[in-house]
Amino acid sequence: MPDLFFESALHARGLHRIAGVDEAGRGPLAGPVAAAAVILPAGFSCPGLDDSKKLKASRREELYQRLTGDPAVFWAVATADCGEIDRLNILRATHLAMRRAVEMLDPPPDHCLIDGLPVRGFPLPYDAIVKGDGLSLSIAAASIIAKVTRDRLMGEIDREFPEFGFAKHQGYGTKFHLEALRIHGPCRHHRRSFQPVAQLSLPLDGS
Length: 207
Known about the structure:
By secondary structure, this protein is α/β, with parallel strands linked by helices. Helices cover 38% and strands 14% of the residues. A 5-stranded mixed beta sheet has the order 3-2-1-4-5. The longest helix is centred in the C-terminal third of the chain and has 24 residues, at 137-160. It is globular, with a radius of gyration of 18 Å.
């Protein structure tokens, strides 16, 4: 289970506002990528808080309410849309969403803990931690907020384009989604640079 080991080590160096940063939605064929930045208070405890990928949707919702409803938890969430993903590529768009989330925190963090590999051009001092959402409690909290936020956005897109079933698969390339793409062609929320969307000859006109 993730804990506050990394955060405590930074606190010992005199750094107090430590933001965990994580993303959701790099792999889907449609929708935005979301990133969250979360600063937990010293000694924070939340039983069951873990990497969002390990938890059921209902449990993620419970943890989201716990985190966002706590006045001692400072958090922000941001997205990069499918147009930015296609223009920049998914890695750069993910980093853009991360920067946006961190820059929304006021006052800014003293240091960040980022899930994954180093982020070029990140505006604040940070440590990159591979599989950090299973190690750092702050990163795990960010993973929950990013995932729940993105799932809710995909629910809104589902109401706009119900034929694709976005609320069920969140834009991932399931059998149902691929068949809907074949029948209907991509909508305006699909990532045009992603295969198999890019292979389709049908117009990408949002219809």
